[in-house]
Task: structure prediction
Amino acid sequence: MEQMVMKMRGMNSGEAGSTNASSTISEEYLEELNVHFGFDKPLYQRYGKWLIVDKIGMKMDSYKFPNKTAWQLIKERFPISLIFGITSFFLTYLICIPLGIIKAVRNGRVFDFTSSIVVFSGYAIPAFAFGMVLKMLLCGTSDQFWDIFPIAGFYSDNFDTLPLIGKIKDIFTHMFLPVLCYMIGQFAVLTLLMKNSLLDEIGKDYIRTVIAKGGSFNRAIWGHALRNSMIPIATGFGSVLSIMFVGSVIIEKVFEIPGMGLLSLDAIVGRDYAVFMGILSLTSILTLLGNILSDFCYILIDPRINFK
Result:
């Protein structure tokens, strides 16, 4: 409704040639807009229509993109956010968990100290600032720096004409820098969580009992302490469902990636409430499903936990 009002004000302003005319919109026209968008009905009726008839807003027409519903726009951005979300999620866990284990085993040594400096240095840099620096250094924005990676987008203009190997290489070069920015903010938290959780398990009585009975230190860690230390890490497993859809709004804006994050930003800036509410509803459902997934991960890691 607000967009249509602004369009009418712009038309009136152009016709009258003055700013005063831009604010003159008849009460009859505003009343027609209220009826058209259903704002004349009680709140419970509007909510019921949004929940049931419009399928939590997915069937609502976009205010900004004509002839497209919220679900059609979300479905177009789904594959890109899916690829970025899953890739960054699994790479983060595949790197941070082994790194946290090594830091715990070598606690207080040179490797632990050096890796902590690197991890915290990366954590201190905002992801969007890191992305802008990477674009300046590696994307050929200046003759003084390197031109290694594409500056923006998810694939090149000639993507359809490339062979299979060329398509894989093209997507890889477009994904490398954004995925690196996705991961940098999670490195410190996940690595230290893994390290501290394992150190806490190593200091417990059952580990000392294993060693006292003749078991090696490696067996005590890999056979007993590691599985129990994974319980706090499992909390983040369910977040993959929401991360893969939402991603990072700022990173997608920096690299001009047409994903769900950029779509939500465009919906907010353009006051396209139908699309934004559809994204918000979908994200909320996925967050709830992700929490259930995390609970099942608890059961798989620790058999003592049950929800009966």
Summary: The radius of gyration is 26 Å. Residues 16-22 have pLDDT under 50 and may be disordered. The chain has two domains: 2-38, 70-301.
